[in-house]
Structure formats: C-alpha cells, structure tokens
Write a structure and sequence with these properties.
The protein has about 475 residues and is α+β, with helices and mostly antiparallel strands. The chain contains 16 helices and 13 strands.
Amino acid sequence: MHTSKITIKSLFGISEQEIGGKSVEITGRKGAGKTSVIDAIRYALTNSSSRDWIIKNGETEGEIIVETDSGLSIDRKARSNKADFVSVKENGNKVTKPETFLKTIITPLQLNPVEFTQMTKNEQNRAILDLIEFDWDLNWIKEQFGEIPQGVDYEQNILQVLNDIQAENGVYFQSRQDINREIRNKRAFITDIAKDIPSSYDAEKWKNYDLSAKYSELMKIKDENGKIERAKAFKDSYTNKLRGLEANKEIAVSAAEKSINAERDSLNSTISRLNAEIQSANEKLLALDNKLQDKIKIAEANFNVAKAKLDADVGIANKFINLEIKPTNALQEEIDTAEVMIKHLNEYDRMKNMQNEIENLQARSEEFTRKIELARTLPGTILQTATLPVEGLTVENGIPLINGLPISNRSDGELLELCVDIAINNPSGLQIILIDGAEKLDDTSRNKLYAKCKEKGLQFIATRTTNDNELIVTEL
C-alpha cells in the first residue's frame, strides 16, 4: 500500500502543499518548511506532534488528507474553535477505531528513521523490541510467574520486561542472593553448633529423660546402702557394747558391796561402843540387805533396759546386715551423662530449627531460580510465535541482534537500511518512509538509501537542507 496523494492545508506553517504518489526529496534552506511537510504526515498517521502550534498562524483549522492506492484514505483536521476531526475510510467504509487501525499500518521507525540513527544504543534496542508483535498483558505475566514481579517497568516491550525480571539487579536475582547468603550463614551456625554436640546424638531420648527420677533412685539406693553399712558396723560393736553394759553392772554392784561393807564395819564398831544402840543397829543391819537387794535390782533393771535397747537396735540392723551393697557407679555415670546431654538440647533444637529454615529457604531460592530461568527461556519461546519486524532478529539478554550482531555495530547508513527492511516487512502496511534531514548522511549513504527504497518498492519522502530559498519538491 502506497500513498497516491497527500494534501496539506494550513498546518505547521504550510499554507497548501500537495505531494503525488512518487518518492520525493524536498529541499530548501533552513526554515523553508521541509520538516513541516514531514511533521504533517506524521500528525496524520499518529495524531501527535512535538510542536506547540499545529494550525498555521492566523487560521482556525488545518487539514491533511492522505489517499492510498488501496482505497484507504485518512482525513485529519486540527481545529481551534471545536474538537479535532479524524476520518479513516477503506473503500468508502468508515473505520470505527481509526487510531488503533493506523498503528497497524505504520511503525515509528518509518516515521523518523534519521532520529533512530541518533538514538543511544539502549534507545535503539528498545525501538526495535517495541516492533515485535506479541499479545501479552499482566495476566499473562501472572500465569507465567504466579505473580507480578516487582521492580519492573511494564510499559516496556515484553522482551525487555523479561530481561529485567531475570537481570542481576532484579528483585528475583537479588532476593535469591539474599536467601543464599542467609543459607550459608545458617549452615555456618549449624556447623558451629554441631561441633559441640556428640555424634549420634539422640535428642528424643534426652528430651524424655527424667533426670529428677534418676536422682531420686540414686539417693534411695545410697540411703539403703548407708543403712546396711551402719547395721554391719553396729553388729560388729554389739559384743563390746554388751561387755560395757556388764562392766557397768559389775562396777555398780562392787561399789554397792564396798559401801555396804564399810557401813557394816562402822555399825559393828558402833555396837560394841554403843550397847544402847544395839537394837537400832541390828534393825539397820537387817535393812541393809534389803537395801542391797534394791540397788542390785536397780542395776539389773538398768542393764535390762539398756540391753533391750541394744537388742532392738540389733534387730533393726539385722534387716540390713545380710543385704548386699548395690553398686551406684553405673547409675551415677548415667546421670552424669544425662546432665551433659540435656545441656545440648537447646542448641540441638536451635540447629534443627535452622535446618528446617534452610530447607524452606532452599525451596524459595530454587523457586527464584526457576523464575529467573523461565524469564531467560521465555524470549526464545516468544520469538517462535511473535511477529518479527525484520528477518534474522534474535534477542539475547534483552538485546536485539540482527543476524547475530547488535544494532550498535551498524553504521548510520545501515541503520537507515534496517528501517527500510522493517517498513517492507509488513506487506499490509503503508509502504512509506519519512527521512527528515537527509543532509546528515554522506552522498554515498544517501544515494544508497534512496536506491534501496526504490529496489524494495518503498515510497520515501525525504528532506534535505540546501541553499535554495524556495521549497523544491523533486520526484525521484
């Protein structure tokens, strides 16, 4: 589809200008209105302009009509006293969504290819990627990643979006780095904890170990062993104690006899000396035997009480004397081991918790890796189904390559030829390219570009600054 006639009235300083369906070069001095023609055509096709004033000064309405050889016509008016007007018709039938339709028949690089050569490398890459047609939206992103990844400019081309998602400074990559760092730190903590925990440590055993009960068992055994040892020692001293009791009895009896004998001697002496008191002395003498018997009975009674107590103690001792001493070394060692092992429980639990945390972190890290790899592989999948603006286009790490070489490796002339290739790659589109500022190219590059446009059947409208005072339109 080519233009058959372009009519401009009262737009961008142009009073009236008509261009036929041929490729033309518009020449003249600066300010002669060359770029105004280009801007008017861009305005017709995009409804946008970088200029503050669209309508020619002094007029209330400006209009541009673009007619094509396929029956398509575009009529756009800028009006100062009422709303702007646009009409797009195909073979006389009105197109219901003109602005959307126009975007399908033209690409930005067709409208300003010289500006494309002056863009930065990143701007050129973005311009090429924006031409790749792939139907996607945020729902598609969510289906792929299960979420809308943060930190990404979703106004970009899908390939740039995917590149940002998997980039090293992206949220996924940085989050994975943070998680992996946390995993390394936790593993180091676990190693530090584990070096103090015995191998084959049975945490469940020591969690359920009743240290208090074992202490009670040990104390009970020790108490019984003490009773056995004391019983044996008491039994060994029984004879000596009984002998002591008998000796105390004999001493008491001997002392009583000595006392009585002394008293008897005294009384006998008194009888001879005191005849008058013989009667009384005899009575006392008779009483002394009874008194002796009483003292002997007291001594015997004391002996029997003490012996009974001793026999009772022996009876208690006999309960233990024949029992064997229970060994406590093994139980003591078990308790000592338990005390040490139980002290490890908190650190063991902390270590196990960290291991569980590491498993969760590892799963999250692997999920980030999956999403990063997905963002890296999706461009290849997209390029298999997407409509590409030019043959030989591939994308690596978000950078478009033409036949394996980046855009930045091309000269200005090659970049303009690329714009030609992009323009003709859409057969149903408008086969026109606007070259504003052709004087920026050397003669060889300019002539080569014009020749390629003709060879590819692409209509071009070019402007070139010359010293001519008048605006000259030359068909080529």
